[in-house]
Amino acid sequence: MRKTNMKKILISLLFLLFGTSAYADCNIKSGSINILANDFPALRTFVETAKGCKGSADFKVTHSSEHNKIAVPALTANPSEFSARIAANSSIVPLMNQDLIRPLDDLVKKYGKGIQDSQLITIDGKIMAVAFMANTQHLYYREDVLKELGIAVPKTYEEVVAASEKIRASGKMQYPYAAAYKAGWNLAEEFVNMYIGHGGEFFKTGTAQPSINNAKGVATLNMLKKLAGLSNPDYLTHDSEAIKVEWESGNVALMTLWASRSGTLLDDDGDAKITAATKLTGPATVAGGNIPAATLWWDGFTLAKNRSDADAEATFRALAHAAANKKMVADAADQAVWLIEGFKPGPKSIGVIEAVKMKAKPYPMLPQMGLMHGALGSEIVEFLQGKESAEQALKDVEAAYMSKAKEQGFL
Amino acid sequence: MPNKTFFWFFLPTGLAMILFIGLPIISTGIQSFYAQHDQVVKEVKKCDPFGCTVSIVVDQEKTSKIREEKPLGKFNGFGTYVDRNHLAVEEIGNFWNETNSFGEFVDQVTNLPFYKALIFTLTYCLFVTPNVLLLGFIIALSLNAVTRRIRGPLIFGTILPMIVTPLVGSLVLFWMIDAEGIIGANLQMLMDDPYLSLKSSKTLTWITIIIYGIWHHSPFAFVVFYAALQTVPQEPVEAAIIDGASRWQRVRHIVLPHIYPVVTFVALISLMDNFRVFEPIIGFSAEGSAQSLSWLIYDNLVNEEVILFGSAAATSMMTIVGIAILLAPVLIRTWKEFRTAR
After folding, report:
1. Is there a contact between B308 and A408 if contact means CB atoms under 8 Å apart?
2. Residue A189, strand partner residues
3. Residue B196 DSSP symbol
4. Is A262 helix (H, G, I), strand (E, B) or coil?
5. ipTM strictly over 0.85?
6. What is the pTM of this model?
């Protein structure tokens, strides 16, 4: 343990001494760069790489897990606090709704050498973001536990339930399943995944009218409740970090978790036996469906509209340098599923690659989806607690969504 | 103090209050009457690393034109106040007509977010405020009776819960009541129920938050009562002792009447504080089981990817009205006493 820490410190020191010289200077002469990003290892690597080519530009970065709460107000100001925002499928939507980010076509043409076409997010023919990594939620399992009980690796959520019941019956673990069911955003995300796995649609085609109160919605809720019954009874307070801790304490044998978290699960910290037995597999399907009960996510950078063209240019050049950086991708192949040319997927990328192969759907990039997500997070709790029926819960979600959508002018 | 002196004395405070409290409240009030403009959407092609789809986006050209004309939004009157996520007037009318029994009607109403939050907030106020007063008074009396030498450290220990940041205090308790925490695990042993979880049951979560509230707020009542106890005149107390009054009789007939105005003051402040209960819900991750009015405002402002200013403003205004209603009886009484005293 101490030895590995020493090693880490040594490596970081070496990086500090020689690391910066390894990056090419992109010859940025002026401008000021200020980036807002979520906080996980891959994004830190990405931003660090961009910093390596800042030249004489002023460079600042804010990594925060509260990035969603800051983004809209900070980019609304003129000039905006940040020149760039690292966003994802869901968080780009409020920026689009409020018209806070700028098209990147000219900059991509001028400085986008090495960025692949597949990395470009185009909306209505305009490039609005450049993606650099992909993410999804998929299954993790404890190989030793499954082997000992003769359970095959589950491919569907029905099999996950059966396997968990078997583990519980064996007396090995009381709560063998875990997923981030914390009331609010996390729980809503689980619903979105499961509902898409059932082949459900959130809105009536072409409108903002909700349409989740149907048989697929009920089946989704019932499956979530079954899984919740196999989880730690405190599941409504557990986010991704909490279930990671549960996993590392050896309380859990099957888990649905973000691919971007695999790095911290499989690192040298914690019980070596559990780490060695932790295996990754694709996301599960549900109810006989073909597409997985999971959503695909991309992380990419966007540039603020309310900022000078000079700043935008400097920021783009620095970030584009990272978004087309083969060296970074090779060095940090373990940290993420990079969408950048030259990426060779390692064992930690299995989840995302399987999800893409299984034709998982991306998280819906609709202007009103955030409101639906918010309504789901609070209104399905009482169903899971056994206080109301699935139909009532779905009715509540629709009603709560409609009030919010009316206030926002979508209905 | 002559009125003129008072005016100049109060002016700086008054100006600051208008600037930092009065104007923001007025601005919030105005915002609560507005909703966003109707969103103009258009169908476009969207491409990302996972493929292309036809989907909708907000039409910025048309929307920005409408926004420039009326930056505040669309006038909505009391629309936000009466919608389903607030007072839900229409829904309640429907429930009244549709439901067969009164119990069913109450069930339906308490399922609405605003009323759910209101009930928790009121329950919290109702249990925490009297207990804070009582506990604070008992601690003040007992500490007033111990010898002076150990009083200092004891007072410091007693006000610790107030010194600890609310969020930190609730987080500490949150981990203690975890199924593997010291309180949670011992409760499981005591009750002989390995599945007992303080966090998963709604009732137990409420009880935990209320106990936390009492623990956190009692020191405030204690400090004020303790200060007031120092002003109790000794002559009547000694006279009562000579007359053979018991300790309880002395407290009941001499101490309590003397510090009565202070009790009113503490009750007012506690009520106001408790009506705005918020931190413990975040600290205990109790959003699933307990929502308060302040939490609803927070939820509208930060948990949504789209910020719901109208909703948050409406809930804020109703919280102010709620506090005013709660405080009205005490305020009216104080006013009457003030009048008779003059």
Report:
1. yes
2. none
3. -
4. helix
5. no
6. 0.86
